[in-house]
Design a protein that fits this description.
Layout: E1 2-5, H1 9-17, E2 27-30, H2 33-44, E3 52-54, H3 59-82, E4 90-94, H4 98-109, E5 113-117, H5 121-129, E6 133-134, H6 137-140, E7 146-149, H7 159-164, E8 169-173, E9 192-197, E10 200-204, E11 210-214, H8 220-224, H9 229-248, E12 258-260, H10 264-267, H11 269-278
Amino acid sequence: MYVLDDGGDLTHCIYKKYPNVFKYIKGIVEESVTGVHRLYQLSKAGKLCVPAMNVNDSVTKQKFDNLYCCRESILDGLKRTTDVMFGGKQVVVCGYGEVGKGCCAALKALGSIVYVTEIDPICALQACMDGFRVVKLSQVIRHVDIVITCTGNKNVVGREYLDRMKNGCIVCNMGHSNTEIDVASLHTPELTWEHVRPQVDHVIWPDGKKIILLAEGRLLNLSCSTVPTFVLSITATTQALALIELYNATEGRYKQDVYLLPKKMGKNRKKRQDIRSKI
């Protein structure tokens, strides 16, 4: 028996409520950032009972889902919720990983002035060489029109930055779950929330300044836009390949740890044909 998971909820449920079931499970396949993070936590703590395949970071899935899909869904989500015009807008994208690269490319193509914040020196160099100005968030937070988080970290945009934003600034998250924007700090008596439409809220300060918060800090691409069917098919296919890899693996090849899908599963045409003949 194998676990095919998305978000880690099924794995977490089995681990907490039915731990004895793990003796019947031979492997786990996980395709989301959150689920993979949970698996690495279990592995680090020595509590992962079976081999697990990290599909999220496999090359094919990562490029189509994180880079190419986000390049389209960032514009779709912002248009659906705010009807904003991108030409001439000043935008700061926090993080220049695969998601950040996709968001920056889309916004630049429509004439936005794009700034990038990035702590990784290689990613920062890539942003610079791609023609973006690499800055600290504190340098631009007062005058940007849109703030987009794509880092995978926690409280990237804290209350101190939210307080300094200009009136009408749009704030949204394309990164990890709902942790990148410190939304909890906005639920205080001095601030007023005005629900405008589904997934769109105005947060109003005592002096009348307001910011436009999308999806209450949750993922914009999942909450406010559609995902191309091709991208979904890529993800499903990659998960199927991971299941086949675990099933066909020789005894002892995979230990109780988290593994990446071997590249040969995606790039070797003959191998794919052999796999299809076994399905």
